[in-house]
Amino acid sequence: MKKSKLLVAAAVLGIATFVAIAADHIDAPAVQGGTSDITDFYAFQGENTSNIAFVANVQGLLAAGNDSQNATFDENVLIEFNIDNTGDNVEDLVIQAIAQDGKMYVFGPTAPAQTGINSTIVTNAASQLEVDITPYGQSAITASSGGMMAFAGPRDDPFFMDFAQYSQIISGNATSFNNPGADTFAGTNVLSIVIEVPKSMIGGSGTINTWVESKRR
Amino acid sequence: MKINNIKYFAIVLGLLMVTYNCSNDDDNTNNDPTGPDFTGTFVQQDQMGRPAVNTVFVSSGMKDAFNLTIPSQQSGAFQAMFQNNLQALSPAYANPGDTNALGLDAAAFTGLLATDVLNVSLDGTTTFFDGTNVLTGRALADDVITVELLLIFGGEDFSENPGLSNDNVDANDKAFLTSFPYLATPW
Protein backbone atom coordinates (compact mmCIF):
# COMPACT_ATOMS: atom_id res chain seq x y z
CA MET A 1 0.00 0.00 0.00
CA LYS A 2 2.68 2.39 1.03
CA LYS A 3 4.85 1.56 -1.93
CA SER A 4 2.11 1.81 -4.54
CA LYS A 5 0.96 5.10 -3.10
CA LEU A 6 4.50 6.35 -3.30
CA LEU A 7 4.78 5.28 -6.92
CA VAL A 8 1.56 7.03 -7.89
CA ALA A 9 2.77 10.13 -6.12
CA ALA A 10 6.11 9.81 -7.82
CA ALA A 11 4.46 9.53 -11.21
CA VAL A 12 2.37 12.64 -10.59
CA LEU A 13 5.30 14.62 -9.26
CA GLY A 14 7.44 13.34 -12.08
CA ILE A 15 5.48 15.40 -14.54
CA ALA A 16 5.87 18.36 -12.24
CA THR A 17 9.57 18.14 -11.63
CA PHE A 18 11.10 16.30 -14.55
CA VAL A 19 12.55 19.33 -16.28
CA ALA A 20 13.80 20.88 -13.10
CA ILE A 21 17.29 19.94 -12.06
CA ALA A 22 18.84 19.62 -8.66
CA ALA A 23 20.05 22.36 -6.33
CA ASP A 24 18.66 25.25 -8.34
CA HIS A 25 20.07 24.44 -11.76
CA ILE A 26 17.43 25.01 -14.44
CA ASP A 27 14.80 25.43 -11.73
CA ALA A 28 12.17 27.42 -13.60
CA PRO A 29 11.14 28.06 -17.23
CA ALA A 30 11.92 31.78 -17.29
CA VAL A 31 15.56 31.36 -16.33
CA GLN A 32 16.64 27.85 -17.31
CA GLY A 33 19.71 27.73 -19.45
CA GLY A 34 19.99 31.52 -19.45
CA THR A 35 22.63 33.85 -18.08
CA SER A 36 20.60 34.68 -14.97
CA ASP A 37 20.01 31.05 -13.92
CA ILE A 38 21.36 30.61 -10.40
CA THR A 39 22.60 27.05 -9.89
CA ASP A 40 23.67 27.21 -6.26
CA PHE A 41 24.20 29.32 -3.19
CA TYR A 42 26.57 28.68 -0.28
CA ALA A 43 27.44 30.64 2.85
CA PHE A 44 30.05 29.39 5.28
CA GLN A 45 32.72 30.45 7.73
CA GLY A 46 35.96 31.32 5.95
CA GLU A 47 39.46 30.03 6.50
CA ASN A 48 39.76 33.16 8.64
CA THR A 49 36.98 32.31 11.10
CA SER A 50 36.16 36.01 11.54
CA ASN A 51 34.77 35.95 7.99
CA ILE A 52 31.82 34.51 6.09
CA ALA A 53 32.24 33.44 2.47
CA PHE A 54 29.28 33.76 0.10
CA VAL A 55 29.22 31.77 -3.14
CA ALA A 56 26.77 32.28 -6.00
CA ASN A 57 27.01 30.04 -9.04
CA VAL A 58 25.27 30.72 -12.34
CA GLN A 59 25.06 29.07 -15.77
CA GLY A 60 25.48 25.43 -14.78
CA LEU A 61 26.30 22.27 -16.68
CA LEU A 62 29.13 23.84 -18.69
CA ALA A 63 31.24 21.17 -20.32
CA ALA A 64 35.01 21.41 -20.21
CA GLY A 65 36.53 23.12 -23.23
CA ASN A 66 34.63 25.47 -25.55
CA ASP A 67 31.49 25.53 -23.42
CA SER A 68 33.40 26.87 -20.42
CA GLN A 69 35.78 28.95 -22.53
CA ASN A 70 32.89 30.83 -24.13
CA ALA A 71 30.74 31.28 -21.02
CA THR A 72 30.67 34.87 -19.79
CA PHE A 73 28.90 36.76 -17.06
CA ASP A 74 26.03 38.81 -18.47
CA GLU A 75 26.80 42.51 -18.03
CA ASN A 76 23.09 43.26 -17.63
CA VAL A 77 22.57 40.78 -14.79
CA LEU A 78 23.11 41.85 -11.20
CA ILE A 79 23.86 39.14 -8.66
CA GLU A 80 22.63 40.30 -5.27
CA PHE A 81 23.38 38.61 -1.97
CA ASN A 82 20.67 39.50 0.55
CA ILE A 83 21.27 39.55 4.28
CA ASP A 84 18.54 39.82 6.91
CA ASN A 85 19.99 40.31 10.37
CA THR A 86 16.76 41.28 12.14
CA GLY A 87 14.81 38.05 11.66
CA ASP A 88 12.01 39.32 9.40
CA ASN A 89 13.29 37.79 6.11
CA VAL A 90 13.60 41.27 4.59
CA GLU A 91 17.07 42.29 3.46
CA ASP A 92 18.85 44.79 5.72
CA LEU A 93 22.07 44.57 3.74
CA VAL A 94 22.97 43.60 0.19
CA ILE A 95 26.19 42.71 -1.55
CA GLN A 96 25.84 43.50 -5.25
CA ALA A 97 28.07 42.03 -7.96
CA ILE A 98 28.02 42.89 -11.64
CA ALA A 99 30.45 42.17 -14.46
CA GLN A 100 31.62 44.99 -16.72
CA ASP A 101 34.45 44.86 -19.26
CA GLY A 102 36.24 41.85 -17.81
CA LYS A 103 35.96 42.87 -14.19
CA MET A 104 33.51 41.91 -11.46
CA TYR A 105 32.48 44.96 -9.44
CA VAL A 106 31.29 44.41 -5.87
CA PHE A 107 29.29 46.92 -3.82
CA GLY A 108 28.48 46.42 -0.16
CA PRO A 109 27.58 45.05 2.30
CA THR A 110 25.35 48.10 2.35
CA ALA A 111 21.75 49.02 2.97
CA PRO A 112 19.82 48.61 -0.30
CA ALA A 113 18.24 51.63 -2.00
CA GLN A 114 15.01 49.67 -1.77
CA THR A 115 14.09 46.14 -0.71
CA GLY A 116 12.32 43.58 -2.87
CA ILE A 117 12.05 42.67 -6.54
CA ASN A 118 13.68 45.76 -8.07
CA SER A 119 17.18 47.01 -7.34
CA THR A 120 19.49 49.81 -8.26
CA ILE A 121 23.21 49.57 -7.68
CA VAL A 122 24.45 51.34 -4.57
CA THR A 123 27.43 52.92 -6.29
CA ASN A 124 28.24 55.10 -3.26
CA ALA A 125 28.52 52.12 -0.88
CA ALA A 126 31.28 52.64 1.67
CA SER A 127 32.75 49.22 0.91
CA GLN A 128 33.41 48.20 -2.67
CA LEU A 129 36.04 46.40 -4.65
CA GLU A 130 36.66 45.02 -8.10
CA VAL A 131 38.43 41.95 -9.38
CA ASP A 132 39.51 40.82 -12.84
CA ILE A 133 37.36 37.93 -14.00
CA THR A 134 39.60 34.88 -14.12
CA PRO A 135 39.79 33.52 -17.67
CA TYR A 136 39.16 29.81 -18.21
CA GLY A 137 42.35 27.84 -17.79
CA GLN A 138 44.19 30.45 -15.73
CA SER A 139 45.00 30.53 -12.03
CA ALA A 140 42.41 32.16 -9.80
CA ILE A 141 42.71 35.96 -9.70
CA THR A 142 41.52 37.39 -6.40
CA ALA A 143 41.30 40.89 -4.99
CA SER A 144 41.01 42.13 -1.44
CA SER A 145 40.11 45.44 0.13
CA GLY A 146 38.95 46.53 3.56
CA GLY A 147 38.93 42.96 4.87
CA MET A 148 36.85 41.70 1.94
CA MET A 149 37.93 39.32 -0.82
CA ALA A 150 36.42 38.67 -4.22
CA PHE A 151 36.75 36.14 -7.04
CA ALA A 152 34.79 35.63 -10.26
CA GLY A 153 35.24 33.08 -13.01
CA PRO A 154 34.64 29.49 -14.09
CA ARG A 155 35.05 26.74 -11.45
CA ASP A 156 34.14 23.11 -11.06
CA ASP A 157 30.47 22.83 -10.08
CA PRO A 158 30.70 22.00 -6.36
CA PHE A 159 27.24 20.43 -6.37
CA PHE A 160 26.97 16.65 -6.34
CA MET A 161 23.96 14.38 -6.67
CA ASP A 162 22.72 11.34 -8.54
CA PHE A 163 20.14 13.41 -10.32
CA ALA A 164 19.70 10.88 -13.10
CA GLN A 165 18.54 8.20 -10.66
CA TYR A 166 16.39 10.71 -8.78
CA SER A 167 14.65 11.38 -12.10
CA GLN A 168 14.15 7.66 -12.64
CA ILE A 169 12.54 7.35 -9.20
CA ILE A 170 10.37 10.42 -9.64
CA SER A 171 9.19 9.23 -13.05
CA GLY A 172 8.32 5.79 -11.67
CA ASN A 173 11.03 3.83 -13.46
CA ALA A 174 12.98 2.95 -10.31
CA THR A 175 12.14 2.41 -6.66
CA SER A 176 15.44 3.31 -5.05
CA PHE A 177 18.81 4.93 -5.51
CA ASN A 178 21.81 2.93 -6.65
CA ASN A 179 24.75 2.17 -4.40
CA PRO A 180 27.15 3.56 -5.30
CA GLY A 181 25.37 6.38 -7.04
CA ALA A 182 26.70 8.40 -9.97
CA ASP A 183 27.29 12.16 -9.68
CA THR A 184 25.32 13.71 -12.54
CA PHE A 185 27.34 16.92 -12.16
CA ALA A 186 30.78 15.30 -12.36
CA GLY A 187 33.00 16.97 -14.89
CA THR A 188 30.85 20.09 -15.31
CA ASN A 189 31.63 23.71 -14.57
CA VAL A 190 29.76 26.82 -13.45
CA LEU A 191 30.49 30.54 -13.37
CA SER A 192 31.23 31.41 -9.74
CA ILE A 193 31.24 34.57 -7.70
CA VAL A 194 32.90 34.18 -4.31
CA ILE A 195 32.86 37.08 -1.86
CA GLU A 196 34.26 36.89 1.65
CA VAL A 197 33.35 39.52 4.23
CA PRO A 198 34.19 40.11 7.88
CA LYS A 199 31.34 38.98 10.13
CA SER A 200 31.51 42.42 11.72
CA MET A 201 30.16 43.89 8.46
CA ILE A 202 27.02 41.73 8.42
CA GLY A 203 25.85 41.67 12.02
CA GLY A 204 28.80 40.42 14.06
CA SER A 205 27.09 37.58 15.94
CA GLY A 206 23.86 35.60 16.05
CA THR A 207 22.11 34.14 13.01
CA ILE A 208 21.47 35.86 9.69
CA ASN A 209 19.03 34.81 6.99
CA THR A 210 20.52 35.06 3.56
CA TRP A 211 19.60 34.36 -0.06
CA VAL A 212 20.85 35.25 -3.51
CA GLU A 213 18.99 36.82 -6.42
CA SER A 214 19.70 37.45 -10.09
CA LYS A 215 18.22 40.65 -11.48
CA ARG A 216 18.27 41.91 -15.06
CA ARG A 217 18.08 45.47 -16.40
CA MET B 1 23.71 25.88 -28.64
CA LYS B 2 27.03 25.31 -30.34
CA ILE B 3 25.75 26.68 -33.63
CA ASN B 4 24.42 29.69 -31.76
CA ASN B 5 27.80 30.24 -30.17
CA ILE B 6 29.45 30.16 -33.55
CA LYS B 7 26.88 32.60 -34.89
CA TYR B 8 27.43 34.97 -31.98
CA PHE B 9 31.15 34.67 -32.42
CA ALA B 10 30.80 35.59 -36.08
CA ILE B 11 28.61 38.56 -35.20
CA VAL B 12 31.02 39.74 -32.54
CA LEU B 13 33.93 39.34 -34.91
CA GLY B 14 32.04 41.34 -37.52
CA LEU B 15 31.31 44.08 -35.02
CA LEU B 16 34.92 44.15 -33.91
CA MET B 17 36.07 44.60 -37.50
CA VAL B 18 33.57 47.41 -38.04
CA THR B 19 34.60 49.05 -34.80
CA TYR B 20 38.24 48.72 -35.70
CA ASN B 21 37.67 50.25 -39.11
CA CYS B 22 35.74 53.16 -37.66
CA SER B 23 38.30 53.88 -35.01
CA ASN B 24 40.88 54.47 -37.71
CA ASP B 25 38.93 57.48 -38.88
CA ASP B 26 38.55 59.31 -35.62
CA ASP B 27 41.64 58.79 -33.53
CA ASN B 28 41.71 60.26 -30.05
CA THR B 29 38.57 62.30 -30.25
CA ASN B 30 37.73 61.24 -26.72
CA ASN B 31 34.27 60.10 -27.75
CA ASP B 32 34.52 56.61 -26.34
CA PRO B 33 33.28 56.77 -22.74
CA THR B 34 32.95 53.01 -22.40
CA GLY B 35 33.44 52.87 -18.64
CA PRO B 36 31.46 50.49 -16.47
CA ASP B 37 27.72 51.09 -16.54
CA PHE B 38 25.97 50.74 -13.19
CA THR B 39 22.78 52.55 -14.14
CA GLY B 40 19.28 51.22 -14.48
CA THR B 41 16.74 49.25 -12.50
CA PHE B 42 17.43 45.55 -12.18
CA VAL B 43 14.37 43.32 -12.00
CA GLN B 44 14.40 39.95 -10.31
CA GLN B 45 14.61 36.74 -12.35
CA ASP B 46 15.89 33.96 -10.08
CA GLN B 47 16.48 33.51 -6.36
CA MET B 48 17.68 30.81 -4.03
CA GLY B 49 18.16 30.21 -0.33
CA ARG B 50 18.32 26.52 0.53
CA PRO B 51 19.25 23.92 -2.09
CA ALA B 52 16.62 22.18 -4.23
CA VAL B 53 13.61 23.89 -2.66
CA ASN B 54 12.08 25.28 -5.85
CA THR B 55 12.94 22.11 -7.74
CA VAL B 56 11.36 19.67 -5.28
CA PHE B 57 8.52 21.47 -3.53
CA VAL B 58 7.08 23.94 -6.03
CA SER B 59 4.60 22.64 -8.60
CA SER B 60 5.57 23.04 -12.23
CA GLY B 61 3.36 25.99 -13.14
CA MET B 62 4.48 28.02 -10.13
CA LYS B 63 8.26 27.87 -10.33
CA ASP B 64 8.69 31.28 -11.92
CA ALA B 65 6.20 32.77 -9.48
CA PHE B 66 8.16 31.34 -6.56
CA ASN B 67 11.33 32.96 -7.90
CA LEU B 68 9.56 36.33 -7.95
CA THR B 69 8.02 36.17 -4.46
CA ILE B 70 10.04 37.91 -1.77
CA PRO B 71 11.00 35.58 1.11
CA SER B 72 8.85 37.37 3.69
CA GLN B 73 5.78 36.48 1.59
CA GLN B 74 6.76 32.99 0.47
CA SER B 75 5.39 31.03 3.42
CA GLY B 76 1.97 32.63 3.16
CA ALA B 77 1.80 32.06 -0.58
CA PHE B 78 3.37 28.61 -0.86
CA GLN B 79 3.30 26.65 2.43
CA ALA B 80 0.09 24.76 1.56
CA MET B 81 1.50 23.76 -1.84
CA PHE B 82 4.72 22.61 -0.19
CA GLN B 83 2.77 20.49 2.29
CA ASN B 84 0.65 18.88 -0.44
CA ASN B 85 3.73 18.07 -2.49
CA LEU B 86 5.61 16.75 0.55
CA GLN B 87 2.74 14.44 1.48
CA ALA B 88 2.45 13.22 -2.11
CA LEU B 89 6.17 12.49 -2.21
CA SER B 90 6.36 10.91 1.26
CA PRO B 91 2.85 9.74 2.25
CA ALA B 92 3.79 8.92 5.85
CA TYR B 93 3.72 12.67 6.51
CA ALA B 94 -0.06 12.56 6.06
CA ASN B 95 -0.42 10.49 9.24
CA PRO B 96 -1.29 12.65 12.24
CA GLY B 97 1.72 13.19 14.46
CA ASP B 98 4.21 11.91 11.89
CA THR B 99 7.46 13.88 12.01
CA ASN B 100 10.97 13.86 10.59
CA ALA B 101 14.17 13.56 12.60
CA LEU B 102 14.04 17.26 13.44
CA GLY B 103 10.71 16.63 15.17
CA LEU B 104 8.88 18.64 12.51
CA ASP B 105 5.53 17.47 11.17
CA ALA B 106 4.46 18.19 7.60
CA ALA B 107 3.08 21.65 8.41
CA ALA B 108 6.06 22.73 10.47
CA PHE B 109 8.64 21.31 8.05
CA THR B 110 7.07 22.94 5.01
CA GLY B 111 6.54 26.16 6.97
CA LEU B 112 10.30 26.22 7.49
CA LEU B 113 11.15 25.34 3.88
CA ALA B 114 8.65 27.65 2.20
CA THR B 115 10.59 30.67 3.42
CA ASP B 116 13.53 29.97 1.17
CA VAL B 117 16.39 31.60 3.04
CA LEU B 118 19.63 30.06 4.24
CA ASN B 119 20.17 30.49 7.98
CA VAL B 120 23.82 31.21 8.75
CA SER B 121 25.43 31.31 12.17
CA LEU B 122 28.00 34.05 12.76
CA ASP B 123 29.17 32.28 15.93
CA GLY B 124 30.88 29.10 14.81
CA THR B 125 30.32 26.00 12.69
CA THR B 126 28.49 26.64 9.45
CA THR B 127 26.86 23.55 8.00
CA PHE B 128 23.57 22.41 6.52
CA PHE B 129 23.71 19.42 8.87
CA ASP B 130 26.74 17.66 10.31
CA GLY B 131 25.09 15.33 12.82
CA THR B 132 25.17 17.99 15.54
CA ASN B 133 24.59 21.42 14.02
CA VAL B 134 21.43 21.93 11.95
CA LEU B 135 20.90 24.70 9.39
CA THR B 136 23.77 26.93 10.47
CA GLY B 137 24.94 27.59 6.92
CA ARG B 138 25.92 25.61 3.85
CA ALA B 139 29.48 24.49 3.33
CA LEU B 140 30.76 23.26 -0.03
CA ALA B 141 31.22 19.67 1.14
CA ASP B 142 27.83 19.35 2.85
CA ASP B 143 25.86 16.43 1.40
CA VAL B 144 22.72 18.56 1.26
CA ILE B 145 20.73 16.25 -1.01
CA THR B 146 21.09 13.28 1.32
CA VAL B 147 20.16 15.51 4.27
CA GLU B 148 17.02 16.61 2.44
CA LEU B 149 16.19 13.06 1.34
CA LEU B 150 16.55 11.91 4.95
CA LEU B 151 14.26 14.66 6.17
CA ILE B 152 11.70 13.87 3.45
CA PHE B 153 11.80 10.05 3.49
CA GLY B 154 13.78 8.96 6.54
CA GLY B 155 11.07 9.28 9.18
CA GLU B 156 11.64 10.06 12.84
CA ASP B 157 15.02 8.36 13.12
CA PHE B 158 16.35 8.31 9.53
CA SER B 159 15.57 4.58 9.30
CA GLU B 160 12.55 4.61 6.99
CA ASN B 161 12.76 4.15 3.21
CA PRO B 162 16.52 3.56 3.15
CA GLY B 163 16.53 3.18 -0.63
CA LEU B 164 15.13 6.69 -1.03
CA SER B 165 16.96 8.43 1.80
CA ASN B 166 20.45 8.52 0.31
CA ASP B 167 21.56 9.02 -3.28
CA ASN B 168 24.93 7.47 -2.35
CA VAL B 169 26.88 10.35 -3.86
CA ASP B 170 28.54 11.73 -0.77
CA ALA B 171 31.23 14.05 -2.06
CA ASN B 172 32.21 16.30 -4.92
CA ASP B 173 34.17 15.04 -7.93
CA LYS B 174 37.06 17.42 -7.14
CA ALA B 175 38.60 18.33 -3.81
CA PHE B 176 37.81 21.79 -2.49
CA LEU B 177 40.52 24.26 -1.53
CA THR B 178 41.18 25.20 2.08
CA SER B 179 41.81 28.81 1.05
CA PHE B 180 39.88 31.44 -0.89
CA PRO B 181 38.22 31.03 -3.40
CA TYR B 182 37.58 27.50 -1.98
CA LEU B 183 35.94 26.07 -5.13
CA ALA B 184 37.99 23.66 -7.23
CA THR B 185 39.51 24.68 -10.55
CA PRO B 186 37.28 24.06 -13.57
CA TRP B 187 37.42 20.94 -15.73
Tell me about this structure.
The complex is a heterodimer of chains A (217) and B (187). Chain A is mainly β and 217 residues long. Mean pLDDT of chain A is 91; it is low at 1-20. In chain A, the strands form two sheets. Chain A has a five-stranded antiparallel β-sheet. A five-stranded antiparallel β-sheet of chain A has the order 7-5-4-3-11, with no helix packed on it. Chain A has helices at residues 2-17, 66-70, 163-170; strands at 38-45, 51-63, 77-84, 93-100, 103-110, 118-119, 128-132, 143-145, 148-156, 188-198, 207-216. Chain A has one domain (2-216). Chain A is built from three helices and eleven strands. In chain A, a hairpin with a 2-residue loop joins strand 8 and strand 9 (148-156). By secondary structure, chain B is mainly alpha-helical. Chain B has a domain at 53-157. Chain B contains six helices and two strands, in the order H-E-H-H-H-H-E-H. Chain B has helices at 2-25, 53-57, 63-67, 71-89, 106-114, 144-153, and strands spanning 42-48, 118-121. The longest helix of chain B is centred in the N-terminal third of the chain and has 24 residues, at 2-25. Chain B is globular and about 65 Å long. Classes of the chains: A mainly beta (217), B mainly alpha (187). Chains A and B meet through helix 1, strand 1, strand 2, helix 2 and strand 3 of A and helix 1, strand 1, helix 2, helix 3 and helix 4 of B. Strand 6 (118-119) of chain A pairs antiparallel with strand 1 of chain B.
